[in-house]
Amino acid sequence: MKKLTLIALLVLSATMVFAQAPKFGFKAGLNLNNVSTNDDELKEELGGRTSIHLGVITDFTMSKSLSFQPQLLFSGRGAKIDHGDHNDVYAFNSLEIPLNFTYKKNASKGVFLGVGPSFGYNLSGKVKGDHDSEDIVFGSGNGEIKRLDLGLNAIFGYQFSNKYFVSTNYSSGLSNWSNESNSTWKNNIVGISVGFFLK
Description:
- By secondary structure, this protein is mainly β.
- The protein has two helices and ten strands.
């Protein structure tokens, strides 16, 4: 994780040196969350959780068609587990930093697509039952959840003008939230967003 973070910072620094003056904007939308696991029994009980994301986006134009778009988002994550007689919802509040390289044929409007790493940090979390809830414990021990989360992000969208855009993205979890050696819990997100740039 430290090596990947260092690589991301080096890429960001190099991009800022060679890019034109950036555009700043805002985006918000829905997260359709689900979790992948190696637990066959849990797979039958897992369901999705709908939440929101919102935050800021920066566009560094590198050429006529290529841009670098780092984002800082507040993002809801998690999943629902149907135990038959009751449901448990794992709800996480996270900071997410997608670092997307995007391509569009027309610099001012049209279809765009991109890809890049995504770094997440779990700020807080709760397990919500039908009648009660409890805080999720973060840490490195068994039964605790890791705060850091790494994913690979792909994005597809349409820019209506220099200002407004819509997009959808898929972030596939690469790191395991669980500290147990025989258990995997990876977060996956489909996001649907609207946004605008200030200039």
